[in-house]
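Narrative summary of target 7.
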Amino acid sequence: MQEMSTSKKKSKTDGKVKTTKEQEFEQAYDALLNLLNGIDAMIYVTRPETGEIMFINDQMRKHYGLEGDLVGQLCYKVLQEGMDERCVFCPCHRLDADPQSVVVWEEHSTLTKRIYRNVDRYIDWLGGKKAHVQYSIDISDFMRTQESLKKLTFELQKALNEAEEANRVNNAFLSRILHLEAETAKVFVDGLTNIYNRRYFDENMERLLKTFSRSGGVLCLMMIDIDFFKKFNDTYGHSAGDDCLKIVADALSKNIPRNDDFVARYGGEEFVVVLPNTDEKGAHIVADRLLACIRECAIPHKQNDVADYITVSIGVTVGKVSHKHVAGDFIKRADDMLYKAKQSGRNRYCFEALL
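Modeled conformation, tokenized:
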């Protein structure tokens, strides 16, 4: 907590005399707690030595159905079922060994019977007290997707800005929140291209299929492969190959039409594009645009058998989702069409509907 200037001014509240410094401290403290209560994540703070709760935000209270004043109660009795002593899996055991570390782990709650991804570390809490803080996200239904991550980033940045306006209360603590959020986001981001990775694709395909099987929605899937990429690496080197993958990923990301659409790196030089609620006509339009945007990148490739620059081949499928469909059905059909596009001369797309 930033130290505030001492003042001899005093005010009376409920018969108690408070200095201006005390009033400013209380206002800054209330502002910080209000910000943490507004963040779309479950957050609680405990005393590491005892497990006593120092703060628990409204999101976590609502999720666990907690009521009343919980400050001073033991976290393992409040947040677990049938626990009379500290949990053997408590991350404080690992943090005690390395107080500067960050622990990311998954928990099967005995109280809610749900699964959470937790991010834990030690911080300097208000007043200089050492505290254990945990950020928890319910991942039971794989519902934490792109929009939730964007929203969390926005809320954390907003919290930081508002904290600076409130006499820059505890800037070091809030900056750590941003760091922890970034660590969580890395789970779904490809380290080279900075777009979504295979894990994000797998989890969100399952979520979309589950949702669309109830509503009867239409889903479009594209499998994209860079033509003769091995020859490119052999000719220009792997560093140039990495640069090529980054340019292609950026071009694909900028040319998908809507916020619900996304592109992910499937592996190697392969990418996938997922277009929810896109019919056959829309799929053809997007596929043509993606072919064109890669050509317009004009990345030289003298070993490409179909052009003097980088090109891609695309396999496209569209299907109305029903309860009988699994992700593998869309992937296989799109992959078959990708193979057909390559056999037909590359630098093109092939389409077949999934019935």
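The chain has a mean pLDDT of 85.
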